[in-house]
Amino acid sequence: MSVMDTLLEIKQKASEELAALDGTAALEALRVRVLGKKGELTALLKGLGQLSPEERPAAGAQINDARAWLQARMDESLARLQAAEREAALQSETIDVTEPRPLPRVGAAHPITLVMNELIDCFTGMGFEVMEGPEVELDHYNFELMNIPKNHPARDAQDTFYMDDNVVLRTHTSPMQARAMLSRKPPIRIICPGRVYRADEVDATHSPVFHQMEGLVVDEHVTMADLRGTLSAFARKMYGEDVSIRFRPSFFPFTEPSAEVDLTCSACHGKGCRICKETGWIEVLGSGMVNPKVLEMCGIDSTRYSGFAFGIGMERLAMRRFGIRDMRLLYEGDARLLGQLR
Ligand code: PHE
Fold this sequence. Notes:
With 342 residues, the chain is of the alpha+beta class. Helix content is 43%, strand content 20%.
């Protein structure tokens, strides 16, 4: 077969295959087979040596023409196939931005955290500073410096978790009074929010872990009127101008005199209802004038300085605030409930 005939055959076959190609990969395979280093045209060129010297130039020129023609056809095909492949990719990768999807669940602060943050805002607004301390506490701070010596009956009332003879899980935030007085000089104005622990059975109003906020003021000429004024300001700021507070005589070893403080029941505005057990009042904190013995044990001159302290039960406030009757709801972590309380 002459070179011319072979070329015609190669071109014809390549044209048919080009028309039927289904992708750029197949095109590349065709290019290698026909135009590649070991391809059909190269083989023809190598065969030129068989021809007579007169025939060679014309045959060589024909092969080169055929190469150029085939290269041009393949370039056209490549452009067409690439465009088609890009289009197909765009189609298959399209995102339907209108498709509905599940809404993300947004977290919310825990009711105790909300109440704690409000209390912190309220008291820092009055010039108090936040001070935090250990939940695993020495007996010395939790009891001794709070005027609750060994064998004192008040130790029983505290239902203490003991780690060993000298270390307890703090039963109240009051040891922070001692830590503040031992580490600072008057005037002292601090609040200490945090967890406290008592060996109580879980029920609607008790939990072995709960939260308190301690307050302590020590300065010259501090009186019970300052305590009452501070707590009235706190009550009005948190619950509105029409809320009253009531002091009831009480006893704590670390304060003298001591008072339990009630707020007007927010459910019935003082008329009496189930929540306040028909009294119109809700107990929210213990307070009193810092016992001079405690001042002295903590290195403060009780002839020059006096102070007041209070301990607010945070669960009570949160329950009152959100109308929750059972404390367990605060700890069970049901996001359907906790997420609604703001
Ligand atoms: N520590 C007391 C308690 O846990 C509360 C209290 C604090 C009372 C400060 C008086 C002064 O019950």
